[in-house]
Specification:
Elements: E1 11-14, E2 17-20, E3 23-24, H1 25-32, E4 36-40, H2 41-54, E5 59-63, H3 70-78, E6 82-85, H4 88-96, E7 104-106, H5 113-122, E8 125-128, H6 131-144, E9 148-155, E10 177-178, H7 182-191, E11 195-201, H8 212-229, E12 237-239, H9 257-275, E13 280-283, H10 287-290, E14 294-305, E15 309-313, H11 322-326, E16 332-334, E17 344-349, E18 358-365, E19 373-376, E20 397-402, E21 405-410, H12 415-419
Parallel strand pairs: 4-20, 5-6, 5-13, 6-7, 7-8, 8-9, 9-10, 9-11, 11-12, 12-13, 15-17
Antiparallel strand pairs: 1-2, 2-3, 4-14, 14-15, 14-19, 16-19, 17-18, 20-21
Helix pairs in contact: 2-9, 5-6, 8-9
The structure holds pyridoxal-5'-phosphate (PLP).
Function: Specifically catalyzes the decarboxylation of meso-diaminopimelate (meso-DAP) to L-lysine.
Organism: Methermicoccus shengliensis
Cofactor: pyridoxal 5'-phosphate
């Protein structure tokens, strides 16, 4: 199978080399070194506009956890998206990227008092995950003399048919209040000072490849909106989170944003009409915005023909944990032999001292030699943002390409960064 058969979108093969955003990946590997994350600005903008076109009336909040690089957050802000943040750190980054505070929702199932105070002080909305959290937020906001707009994160009890580690809306999940407690929770919020219930929120999981669970979630959410309405609360927004999958493996199709819109908008509109209300629909795409905008470039250190043909490269689950954590598929291209025919089956492994450190298993690729540059595709979401320094490996650099230009958006760490906050007690000197 020729490699270009499976390469989609903004990537192309020219003179045998893989290009991203008109820039040669092999040259990028030379110039910036490997491993290296490379993101394409135009692709991110395109992805956002695709969702905006599918949901012209919805408010879109970018899930910062997918990729929190400041340059990428600035692009998201310029395209008019709000943000879904999960910590005071992500909140700080979103505000620094000049995402307007009224478009930020502070989410999380275990917020500290410090987190809640940060939310109150910055004037963002809060997605409250429990009745106890409503009480805690109320007293912090009240003491501060503020009024915080809140939604409750609801557990809609829906199976999204995705990997168990990223199914978040199951009855057994740690997220959200059980849907049968929703009325009670809003009643409580109504009675508490300092918080105003204005929305309702759910998020059923991630990398979901069918629209049915989303339709089911919207149906369930609208019955809850009705219950809340019976308390005299007219909600301003219904936030259905995200989880829209992407076709990591081109043989497994994923629904597009317009497929999603076709599945959920008629239900949403019909229910709004039935209830005589007009809340705003919110979505929180993370993966769809950034995943396919980015490649991880790695270089081949060594090749070993053992019970499999192992290609050992300079990045493993320290920089891309998805294959290990979620059994995820990422397509791999030999960037300097991108139009060469497949020659044999390889297993691509990282340098980490764990036998599970496998990036890609049993892939048909062109004959690989030491020094070749491999591109791991679709690594813009939950790639760098989930990276670590495990095994004493400083994190790599990130580059943004835009119309044929490449700029560093994060320097590679060095050994100094391994020591950054370590302190050696004097007696051990
Ligand atoms: C992670 C997360 C998202 C983003 O999910 P994707 O699958 O990346 O689109 C949105 N909302 C919440 C609450 C999340 O936790």
């Amino acid at each position: 199978m020729p490699a270009e058969f499976e390469i989609a979108g903004h990537l192309e093969v020219r003179d045998g080399h893989l290009h991203i955003g008109d820039v040669d990946c092999v040259e990028l590997a030379e110039r910036f070194g490997t491993p290296l994350y490379v993101s394409n600005e135009q692709r991110i903008r395109q992805n956002i506009r695709t969702i905006q076109r599918a949901f012209p009336e919805a408010h879109l909040l970018y899930a910062v956890k997918a990729n929190g690089n400041l340059a990428i957050l600035r692009i998201v802000a310029q395209e008019g998206m709000g943000a879904d943040v999960f910590s005071a750190g992500e909140l700080y980054l979103a505000l620094l990227a000049r995402i307007p505070r009224e478009k930020i929702l502070f989410n999380g199932n275990s917020k500290s008092d410090h987190d809640l105070l940060a939310a109150v002080e910055s004037g963002v909305m809060v997605s409250v995950d429990s009745e106890m959290e409503a009480e805690r937020l109320s007293s912090i906001a009240h003491e501060h003399g503020s009024e915080v707009r809140i939604a409750f994160r609801v557990n809609p009890d829906i199976s999204p048919m995705t990997h168990p580690n990223i199914a978040t809306g199951l009855r057994s999940s740690k997220f959200g209040i059980p849907h049968e407690h929703v009325r009670r929770a809003y009643e409580l919020a109504q009675s508490l000072p300092g918080i105003v219930p204005v929305g309702i929120h759910c998020h059923i999981g991630s990398q979901i490849l069918s629209t049915e669970p989303f339709a089911e979630a919207v149906r369930r959410m609208m019955t809850l909106v009705e219950q809340v309405g019976e308390l005299g609360i007219e909600l301003e927004f219904v936030d259905i989170g995200s989880g829209l999958g992407i076709p990591y493996d081109k043989r497994v199709p994923a629904p597009s944003p317009s497929d999603l819109a076709r599945a959920v908008l008629p239900i949403f509109r019909e229910e709004c009409e039935r209830l005589g209300i007009s809340p705003t629909l919110c979505l929180e795409p993370g993966r769809y915005v950034v995943a396919d905008s980015t490649v991880l470039l790695v270089r081949v250190n060594t090749i070993k023909h053992a019970h499999a043909s192992f290609v050992a490269v300079d990045a493993g689950f320290n920089l891309l944990v998805r294959p290990v954590m979620y059994d995820a598929y990422h397509h791999v291209v030999v960037a300097n032999k991108a139009d060469a025919p497949a020659a044999q089956k390889y297993t691509i492994v990282g340098p980490i001292c764990e036998s599970g450190d496998i990036l890609a298993k049993d892939r048909w690729l062109p004959a690989i030699e030491r020094g070749d540059v491999l591109a791991v595709l679709d690594t813009g979401a939950y790639g760098f943002s989930m990276s670590s320094q495990y095994n004493g490996r400083p994190r790599c650099a990130e580059v943004l390409v835009s119309n044929g230009r490449a700029e560093l958006i994060r320097r590679a760490e060095g050994v100094d960064d391994l020591l950054a906050n370590q302190l050696l007690p004097e007696r051990l000197l």
